[in-house]
Design goal:
InterPro entries: DNA-bd_dom_put_sf, MerR-type_HTH_dom, MerR_fam. The chain contains 5 helices and 3 strands, in the order βααββααα. The chain is mainly alpha-helical and about 110 residues long. It has a single domain, classed as Orthogonal Bundle (Multidrug-efflux Transporter Regulator, Chain: A, Domain 2). Strands 1-3-2 form a 3-stranded antiparallel sheet. It starts with 9 loop residues before the first strand and ends in a 6-residue tail after the last helix.
Length: about 110
């Protein structure tokens, strides 16, 4: 089940109201690969609470003079380390409970 923080249900207008960032600036951050909204069937951008928090962090860094390329590098590094940490934890749990990979994917092991 997806956490409420990760559900992409907030429109760009509401994000603008919550963050004070212009819709143009929010779109710019998307163009630069810093944020990835979902799209409705009609193409409307949809954001999550986590996206809003990330936008605020991006805006703070930009105010400090940090370039978007550096922000993107930091975001990717954090995602990579989180993914690696999650994989390591999953491996430790699987080893502790003697779970084979095929069991983890929902299939029974031989």
């Amino acid at each position: 089940m997806t956490s409420y923080r990760e559900k992409k249900v907030i429109t760009i207008g509401i994000v603008h109201e919550l963050t004070g960032l212009s819709e143009r600036k929010i779109r710019y951050y998307e163009e630069r690969g810093l944020i990835f909204p979902a799209r409705s069937k009609r193409g409307t951008r949809k954001y999550s609470f986590s996206d809003i928090e990330l936008l605020m962090k991006i805006a703070d860094k930009r105010e400090e003079g940090v370039q978007t390329q550096e922000i993107k590098r930091d975001i990717l590094k954090k995602k990579s380390s989180k993914h690696l940490r999650d994989e390591m934890l999953r491996g430790q749990l699987n080893a502790h409970f003697n779970i084979r990979k095929s069991q983890h994917n929902g299939r029974s092991a031989p």
